[in-house]
Amino acid sequence: MIRVLGLGDNVVDKYIDSKIMYPGGNALNFAVYANMIGIKASYLGIFGDDEAGSHVYQTTKALGITVDHCRYDKGENGYAKVTLEDGDRVFVGSNKGGVSAKHPMVLSDVDLAYISEFDIVHTSCFSYIEKELGKLRKFGKFISMDFSNRYTREYLQACCQHIDCASISCSDMKDHDIIQLMKDMMAYGCKEMVIATRGSRGALVCVGDTFYEQSPCLIEATDTMGAGDSFITAFLTGYISDMKHGVNFRKESGDKGITNIEDYRDLVIKANLYRAAIFSSKVCTCNGAFGFGKRYKE
Asked: For this UniProt entry, which segments traverse the membrane (predicted)?
């Protein structure tokens, strides 16, 4: 079984209409969703010492996700303010990362040795980890970074050279523009793939020079919070796990059935895109990114 690490941001999503906050954040969501799928998952990030930070920390521990290497700083945990419009989450404000932004993580030698144990390390543009990407590249087996819809060309060029997989959210873009951007990101140095989520239009994935399209599993959503994160998590964990298993099986058994690794990769990608669409749709039936709501006061 593979092991994965969510590295960077955690927040609470404060739903201003119901006055309920839910744990979330791109890097933490990755660890939680991997855990839901049955993958051994850990999280490394910074918690604030307020009620929000305590709620996220306690929830993460209760889910069985390892948090042994996390930091705890005095100040506000990251939060985002959210409303729902017909089940679609809409962000209306934030404290821009809270303690994670005020005290960006600096990876120690102990952290890097720990990171080297994982098959996937996933981070994001909300994690304030950009200055550490060079270090991360030297120790991470497979590095994934989600840029959401917060990027410039210069930012992508600076980051993509250090990562294996880049993800972007681009539901408002036309497909031909998305495809060109994905090609550019590969040219910027992204080692293996780019994932583009397009909301109700599904996803596009570029692996090398090959593009794949996955339609969504359409449902009546309770809350679309985490839809893209869950899709990316399910696809990446399935892809890396299946590729590792297939290559190892061939080496150990001498099996000649897998005669062409590219054909095998193609099947793995298609199967896991389908699984990811189904998993993402299920996530949209719960409140918040993965539930565990708690009332808050302003």
From this structure: none
What region, left, alpha or beta, does residue 29 occupy, with left being phi > 0 and alpha being psi -120 to 50 degrees? alpha
C-beta atoms surrounding 184 within 10 Å: 15
CB of 184 within 8 A of CB of 169?
no
Both ends of the chain: CA-CA distance in Å?
43
Which residue matches tokens 């303690």?
99
Cα gap 150→132, rounded to integer Å: 19
pLDDT digits (tens, 9 = 90+) for 233-277: 999 999 999 999 876 545 554 555 556 788 899 999 999 999 999
Q: Which residues of 143-168 are buried (b: 16+ CB within 10 A; e: fewer)?
A: bbbbbbeebeeeebeebbebbbbbbb
Phi (first) and psi of residue 33, to 5 degrees: -65, -40
In the block, tokens 């079984």 appear at 1
User: Which amino acid is it at 289?
Assistant: A
What domains, with CATH codes, occur in the chain? Answer: 3-295 (3.40.1190.20)
Task: Return the pLDDT at 246.
Answer: 74
State residue 165 phi and psi, 5-degree precision.
-135, 130
Beta strands in 95-191 (DSSP E): 120-124, 143-146, 165-169
Strand pairing of 120-124 and 143-146?
Answer: parallel
Work out the percent of the chain whose per-residue pLDDT is above 90: 88
In tens, the pLDDT along 47-101 reads: 999 999 999 999 999 999 999 999 999 999 999 999 988 878 889 889 999 999 9
Alpha-carbon gap, residue 8 to 44, rounded angstroms: 6
132: its two tokens: 């550490």
